[in-house]
Design a protein that fits this description.
The complex is a heterodimer of chains A (about 190) and B (about 400). By secondary structure, chain A is α+β, with helices and mostly antiparallel strands. Chain A has two domains: about 30 residues; about 120 residues, no CATH class. Chain A contains five helices and eight strands. Chain B is built from four helices and 24 strands.
């Protein structure tokens, strides 16, 4: 198979043992040990910052301006809703394959804990679902034309449309606050 | 489990058998008693063809619904290694008026179609349908549809097992026995405007590529997967799809239709009797989505619609009727059938209203019939009407391409 996406986070290489017969001094060994521990701490920190989970946007994460950048959106409107819930509406103007300017929108709704529990989109092509839904999205989906309905313990997904207009919504059923009107919450302007 | 194209086949069949046993057995026994008293009766559903496939002219191909599924129209396509007699005819290709280009599953392709390359790297494509993606390499082929002359086009060899860029969510197109997709319609253009990548042996990049291809049938640009109909020497400005009528209670296999190439180019492809609904950037539906205006039960004001033979149901509204169960993606009106109104309006002002019947999927799933003009489910929003294959039964639907100064249109 020819196409392989390199992993964003390579496994750290184990440190090489000292060659036999060349033992460093106690101080050198202490300094070296400190350096090794510092190095491991840095690797761990970088790993946490760069791990797919923390870099991921969308369901289960707190919204950040960085997320809009990752998704390629320049405008974000924040609205506080009863609950208290917070809705983030991302928008941008894009040119579709026929050359027409189209406004694309993604709406994400966060619960009182600040974490996003539902989102919707109206875009030319569907947004990066791996980014927005993370590991909830199965690696292989059956081919479906028309409307896709996916019901999993951690993900409800509805998506459909055409090759020029994707519409969809997704939510984590475990995190839905009681008494909300999901359709109303996710309606895009 | 719902019968869409397609979820877990085994689970669906087992569930269907269970429901059949639980809900139909008493009725079947009763029906047998009645038939025995009446001296027999007609076969199931009605409306399906019993006299074999229709005869077709040179600019036509037979369309047949896939057995064992609901509303999956298919055709046969012949591909050849360019300039050679090394050819393969592949059946069960989904006929899709809602996409552009020919996509073949890698698992059924047996001839060595040459890869389209760009500066030494193979070209791959992620083609995004609204409900999911297909991913795979791009190859060139001589493609024959019916008795039209073979034409050279780039095609996608779909392979969902390949590693794909993160923004692509590929699925297998061989689900339910479909071996590929022939896109001959919306959005009315020759090339599919997919998302393309040049992929060296180290893997595909995460960003799309600006292509300058070799081995492409389209020269150095745009080297994209294309609708073969555009390349016909004539009969290249659109298609007409005429599907058999089916009754409201379903049609048993076989169910046929005819796909005709060209509009107004032969005696068999006139628009006579059809009304055109043009697509134009003069209104919001046209400029944003290349749709036409739609007003329908459960729809928001300012809604839009499109016609898509690749969608096996009517999809509209977010709660026009109750769903058939938790996680089920079909409507179950109660009482069944339910009725909805649909009004479609072209940019040219032509307008027509329909009253459409919606049958409970609980009823449909108890039948072995394959053609249903009243199968429907919800859409992701209440602003779009996806007029899938149920809309096509019993009428001729034309797709007019954006070519030669022609304004794109649907006609029906």
């Amino acid at each position: 198979m020819k196409t392989v996406i390199p992993s964003a986070l390579e496994k750290p290489q184990g440190h090489r043992p000292f060659p036999p017969g060349r033992r460093p001094s106690l101080l050198a060994r202490h300094l070296l040990r400190s350096l090794v521990w510092t190095g491991w701490a840095l690797i761990l920190l970088l790993g946490l910052l760069g791990s797919p989970e923390s870099a991921r946007a969308g369901l289960g994460t707190a919204f950040s301006a960085q997320e809009a950048v990752h998704l390629g959106y320049s405008r974000v409107v924040t609205a506080t809703l009863p609950g208290p819930l917070t809705a983030y509406t991302l928008s941008r103007t894009a040119t579709n394959p026929l050359g027409h300017a189209v406004t694309e929108r993604i709406r994400e709704v966060a619960g009182p804990d600040g974490r996003i529990f539902a989102l919707s989109w109206s875009t030319i092509h569907h947004p990066d679902l791996n980014l927005l839904l993370g590991k909830r999205l199965p690696s292989s989906l059956p081919f479906i034309r028309g409307e896709r309905t996916l019901s999993l313990p951690t993900l409800e997904l509805r998506m459909g449309g055409s090759v020029l207009h994707s519409e969809g919504m997704a939510w984590d059923p475990r995190r839905l606050p009681p008494g909300i009107n999901l359709q109303e919450l996710l309606t895009l302007p | 489990m719902t019968k869409r194209l397609l979820a877990d086949e085994t689970e669906r069949q087992l569930f269907g058998l269970f429901r059949l046993y639980r809900r139909v057995l008493p009725g079947v026994l009763g029906l047998l008693l009645i038939l025995s008293g009446c001296g027999g009766g007609g076969g199931g559903g009605g409306g399906g063809s019993s006299s074999g496939p229709p005869a077709v002219y040179a600019n036509q191909v037979v369309v047949s619904l896939l057995s064992g599924e609901w509303n999956i129209p298919t055709v046969s396509v012949t591909l050849c290694v360019p300039g050679s007699s090394t050819c393969q005819t592949i059946d069960n290709i989904l006929l899709d008026t809602g996409s552009v280009g020919l996509r073949i599953s890698h698992s059924v392709l047996t001839i060595p179609l040459p890869a389209v390359t760009d500066r030494g790297s193979d070209v791959y494509e992620c083609y995004k349908f609204g409900s999911g993606d297909t991913f795979g390499s791009v190859s060139s082929a001589d493609v024959t549809l019916g008795s039209e002359p073979a034409v050279a086009v780039d095609v996608q060899i779909s392979n969902h097992t390949l590693s794909s860029p993160s923004s692509c969510s590929p699925s297998t197109i061989t689900t339910a026995g479909v071996n590929g997709i022939l896109g001959v319609g919306y959005p009315f253009a020759q090339y599919d405007a997919g998302t393309y990548y040049t992929c060296p042996s180290s893997g595909c990049p995460s960003t799309t590529s600006s292509l300058s291809c070799s081995n492409s049938t389209n020269g150095s640009f745009p080297c994209q997967v294309a609708n073969p109909v555009f390349s016909f020497p004539s009969d290249n400005n659109g298609v007409l799809l005429a599907m058999d009528s089916v009754s409201a209670s379903g049609a048993a296999s076989p169910v046929y239709g005819v796909l005709t190439f060209g509009i107004g180019t032969q005696s068999d492809n006139s628009l006579s009797g059809l009304t055109t609904y043009t697509v134009s950037s003069s209104n919001t539906c046209g400029s944003s989505y290349s749709y036409i205006d739609a007003s329908f039960t459960g729809g928001a004001s300012g809604s839009c619609g499109f016609l898509d033979s690749g969608s096996n149901g009517l999809f509209f509204g977010t709660g026009a009727f109750p769903l058939c169960g938790s996680g089920n993606s079909w409507y179950c009106p109660s009482p069944s059938p339910g009725t909805i109104s649909l009004t479609l309006t072209g940019a040219n002002g032509n307008q027509r209203s329909f009253s459409l019947s919606i049958l409970s999927e609980n009823t449909i799933s108890m039948s072995n019939d394959i053609g249903w003009n009243d199968l429907a489910g919800p859409y992701s929003s209440n602003r779009t009407f996806d007029a899938g294959l149920p809309f096509f039964f019993g009428r001729t639907v034309a797709v007019g391409y954006q070519t030669g100064g022609q304004t794109p249109f649907w006609a029906f």
